C-alpha cells in the first residue's frame, strides 16, 4: 500500500511542466493547504536556511529558494501527512524527527562539500531515503521487533534482514514511493541502493556516488547525535565516503563534534 501521490503535488508538477512556470499560480496552489504552508514557512525561517530576514508567505519563499526548492519542501510535508500514526507499528513522530534531522544534515554537508549539486536533492534524499519504513510498519505488526533484532546483527544490512523475514525490503518500497511521487531519478536510485554497502566500493566520479556519500555521512552524524554510536553501514562505507568528500579522520571528528553540539 504505497501512499498515492497527493493532489496538491500533482497540481504543482503540472504547473511546473510549463515552459515558464507562473510563480503566482504555484504560490496560490500551495497556500490553499494551510498545514503545508505553515510547515514550509517554519522550515525556511529556521537557522538551516540562514536568510537573515523573516519570510512571511509562500510567494516570498519561492523568490528566496526557488520553485524547485519549495516544491521539495512541499513534497516532504505531504509525505509526513500520508501516514496515520494510529495504524503504524513504529513511533512515527520519532521516525520523522530522525529523518528530518538527516535531511537537514544532508543539506549542510551538501552545501559544504558538493555545492555544485542542487541542495534540494540532498534534502529530498535525506527525508525520503527511509520512506519505505513506515509503509512496512503499517503492513507488519512485528516490524519494530524486527528493527530491534536487526541491531544485534549489524554485519547484515537491514534490507537483507527484511528480505529474509518478509520477502521485501524498505529500500525497494521507498524507491516506488519516490518514483511515483516523481522525485529526481538519481535521488530515486540512491533510495533504492542506500543500504548497498558496495555502492561506492569502486569510485566512478558520478553524482549518484556523491549523493550516496553525503547521505551516509549524514546518517552517521545523526546516529552519533542520538545514540552515540555509528550506523551499521558506516564501517563498510567509511573509507570511500571520506575519500569521496576529501575528509580525513581529524576533519571527521571535528565534523561530528560540530554537528552534535550545534544541532
Protein structure class: mainly alpha
Overall mean pLDDT: 93
Number of strands: 0
Return Rg in Å: 18 Å
Q: What ranges have pLDDT less than 50 throughout 5 or more consecutive residues?
A: none
- Discrete helix count: 14
Succession of helices and strands: HHHHHHHHHHHHHH
Shape: globular
Q: Give a quick account of the main beta sheet: strands, pairing sense, barrel closure.
A: none
Descriptive account of the structure:
The protein has helices at 7-16, 23-31, 34-44, 58-81, 92-113, 119-128, 132-139, 143-150, 158-166, 170-180, 185-193, 207-227, 234-244, 249-262. The chain is an all-alpha fold and 263 residues long. The longest helix is centred in the N-terminal third of the chain and has 24 residues, at 58-81. It is globular. The protein starts with 6 loop residues before the first helix and ends with a helix. Helices cover 67% and strands 0% of the residues. Helix 3 packs across helix 4 (58-81).
Descriptive key words:
single chain; about 260 residues; mainly alpha; 14 helices; about 65% helix; globular
How is the secondary structure organized here?
Elements (H helix, E strand, L loop, with lengths): L6 H10 L6 H9 L2 H11 L13 H24 L10 H22 L5 H10 L3 H8 L3 H8 L7 H9 L3 H11 L4 H9 L13 H21 L6 H11 L4 H14 L1
Helix pairs in contact: 1-2, 2-4, 3-4, 4-6, 5-6, 5-12, 6-11, 6-12, 7-10, 10-11, 11-12, 12-13, 12-14
Amino acid at each position: 500500500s504505497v501512499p498515492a501521490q497527493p493532489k496538491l503535488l500533482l497540481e504543482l508538477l503540472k504547473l511546473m511542466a510549463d515552459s515558464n512556470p507562473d510563480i503566482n499560480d504555484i504560490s496560490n496552489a500551495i497556500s490553499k493547504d494551510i498545514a503545508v504552508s505553515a510547515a514550509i514557512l517554519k522550515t525556511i525561517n529556521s537557522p538551516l536556511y540562514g536568510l537573515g530576514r523573516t519570510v512571511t508567505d509562500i510567494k516570498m519563499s519561492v523568490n528566496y529558494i526557488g520553485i524547485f526548492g519549495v516544491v521539495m519542501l512541499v513534497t516532504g510535508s505531504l509525505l509526513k501527512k500520508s501516514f496515520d500514526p494510529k495504524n503504524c507499528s513504529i513511533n512515527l513522530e520519532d521516525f520523522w524527527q530522525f529523518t528530518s534531522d538527516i535531511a537537514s544534515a544532508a543539506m549542510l554537508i551538501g552545501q559544504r562539500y558538493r555545492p555544485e549539486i542542487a541542495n534540494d536533492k540532498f534534502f529530498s534524499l535525506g527525508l525520503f531515503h527511509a520512506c519505505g519504513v513506515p509503509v512496512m510498519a503499517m503492513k507488519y505488526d512485528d516490524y519494530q521487533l524486527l528493527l530491534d533484532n536487526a541491531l544485534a546483527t549489524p554485519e547484515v544490512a537491514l534490507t537483507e534482514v527484511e528480505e529474509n523475514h518478509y520477502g521485501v525490503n524498505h529500500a525497494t518500497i521507498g524507491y516506488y514511493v519516490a518514483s511515483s511521487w516523481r522525485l529526481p531519478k538519481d535521488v530515486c536510485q540512491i533510495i533504492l541502493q542506500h543500504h548497498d554497502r558496495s555502492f561506492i566500493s569502486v569510485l566512478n566520479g558520478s553524482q549518484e556516488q556523491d549523493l550516496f556519500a553525503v547521505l551516509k555521512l549524514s546518517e552517521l552524524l545523526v546516529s552519533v547525535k542520538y545514540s552515540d554510536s555509528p550506523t551499521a553501514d558506516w564501517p563498510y562505507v567509511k573509507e570511500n565516503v571520506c575519500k569521496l568528500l576529501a575528509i580525513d579522520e581529524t576533519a571527521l571528528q571535528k565534523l561530528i563534534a560540530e554537528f552534535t553540539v550545534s544541532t
